[in-house]
Amino acid sequence: MGILKRNVSAKSVRSAVTIIAQGNQLSGDMRVCGKVHIDGVVEGRLEVADDVTIGRQGVVRGCLVANHVNVSGLLEGDLICTSLHVERGGKVRANVCSDKLSIDPQGCFVGERRMQRSTPRLEYHPDDSGKAAIGGEVLDYALFDTLPDRITLSRQED
Asked: Where exactly are the structural domains of the chain?
């Protein structure tokens, strides 16, 4: 028999972990406040305020927005995050916007990765001189036009 207290807050001190177990499938749009671990299938848009782990059996298809993402399973679609790590055996086929990207030697990444462009870190204010002030330094932003839009990395097998 349990005892219920009336003046105990429903909010937890620690963030909760939402687990989508193997065999379960979710479709649609979801917003989650805590961490998420996925061993099932998620299709649609998933916005997570904290970290996401996609387990070996986990599959995410659609748009994922999260803080840190670790992939051991499959991620297909679009990803916006602070950092992405593709574990051994993990597969990412996505357009990724992240500050950090790391891939284990047996991990697979196929897609496009762009750096995040958040206003507080990079202030871009062009003036009439054709230059921009970024972090107090003046840069000639015409140099950015000479950079390629896409870089493709491949490994040659011996």
From this structure: 17-115, 117-146
Using a cut of 0.70, tell me whether the model's pTM lies above it. Answer: no
pLDDT tens by residue, the chain, 158 residues = 455 445 544 554 456 899 999 999 999 999 998 899 999 999 999 999 899 999 999 999 999 999 999 999 999 999 999 999 999 999 999 999 999 999 998 999 999 988 865 433 333 344 444 444 444 444 444 555 555 556 666 666 65
List of long-range contacts for 68-74, beta carbons under 8 Å, 24+ apart: 71/107, 73/38, 73/39
* Residue 84, SS3 per DSSP: strand
